[in-house]
Amino acid sequence: MQPESEGTGRAEQMTSPGFDELYDKYKDAVFSFACYLTQNPGEAEDLFQEAWLRVVKHLPENVNMQSIKAWIFTIVTNLYRDELRKKRVRRVFLFQRGGTPEFNEATFLAFARTSVSDPAEIANQAEMRKEIARAIARLPERQRRVFVLKEIAGFRQAEISDILGTPLGTVKSLIYRALKGLQKELSSYNPKRERAKCDAKILSV
Amino acid sequence: MRCKDIERLIIDSSEGILSQEEWRAIEQHVAQCADCARFQDDLKNIRVSVKKMSNLTPPHKLERRTRDLCQAELSSRLASEEQRVSQIRPSPVPWIIWVALISLIVFTVFLSVSLFKDIGLNQPLSFESVFVLCLILQNAVMLFFAPVIIRKYRSPRQRVRLV
User: Fold this and answer.
1) Considering only CB atoms, which residues of chain A are within 8 Å of chain B?
2) ipTM
């Protein structure tokens, strides 16, 4: 896909190499987002695949390369919302109770990628990853969505407001509550303290 | 400023939208308030930790399968677009238009020759000559717009966006 020419806002229709470029650039970000939203590996994979198919089917005529990331994430968010709505309808008909999805450790350990080679550091990172992922999973749905878009996907608050169709003030409020919630959850977790405990145990043997 | 306001400013600080006064307000407040200082540290740690752990990659099979499905979808879209374009053939220009065009050219040439003969003989322009001149001008204007008419017949009925 050719980059948009300056000022005109028009882009060429997407070609195969252009799609590959877009896919390679954003696939990890989209997958991470799907994992954090769904908290379930199977659902994350389905969401990932469905989102990319939608991207290919509905690529707009005038593609702005600077905002395409936000557009892709909007698709993912809308797909997830549709899925949630279907689940709610199913629950009503089947008289089931809903709630926050359970934290699935497998989701984050299986798909995680690390750049360090030291085994102790890998274990430390895995533990930290688990704790933070658990804390994020405990956030209410809306806060989790906003937190992931802000801190993991790297969107600005105004962009998040556009993606979710939520007023900017609400987005700010949700981010604030999410961060306060995480601060509270993670305040009891101190990796240095855990390591010191572990070292003490080993030395005492 | 209240602690809640300072905390909100601390969160906004990552967006690069704070003014100098706001930065100063944060620094002054944080220097005096242990809770806000802790909030600032915790936020920094959360962000650093999240950055380290945010790189989840899709499994290779999923990545491959999704790419193949999308490529297939893309290929079928392009193929159907090309098929649609080739099926819309331009309609031929009706023969009557060609006959009219040729007749007009012949008539104009004939009139022009007669008129230039009169002008060449240095005779004053008579009413007939002026009339003939007007006819020639009219024909010339019609001939000027002939390509537009032909293009209208030749272009496909539906507008197609080509690659």
Assistant:
1) 12-16, 19-20, 23, 27-28, 31-32, 35, 45, 48-49, 52-53, 55-57, 61, 108, 110-113, 125, 128-129, 132-133, 151-152, 156-157, 172, 175-176, 179-180, 182-183, 186-187
2) 0.71
pTM of the model: 0.65
Q: Does B49 touch chain A (CB under 8 A)?
A: yes
Phi/psi at A36 (5° precision): -70, -30
Instruction: Tell me how far the alpha carbon of residue B26 is from its chain's centroid.
Output: 47
How confident is the model at residue A9, as a pLDDT? 37
Give the helix ranges, DSSP H, for chain B: 3-12, 20-32, 34-53, 60-87, 95-120, 127-154
Shortest alpha-carbon distance between residue A149 and chain B (Å)? 11
Residues of chain A under the 50 pLDDT cut: 1-12, 100, 193-194, 196, 205
Distance from CA of A93 to the nearest CA of B (A): 32
Segments making up each domain of chain B, as ranges: 3-53, 59-88, 95-156
B11 CB within 8 Å of a chain A CB: yes
| Chain B nearest-CA residue for A129 | B53
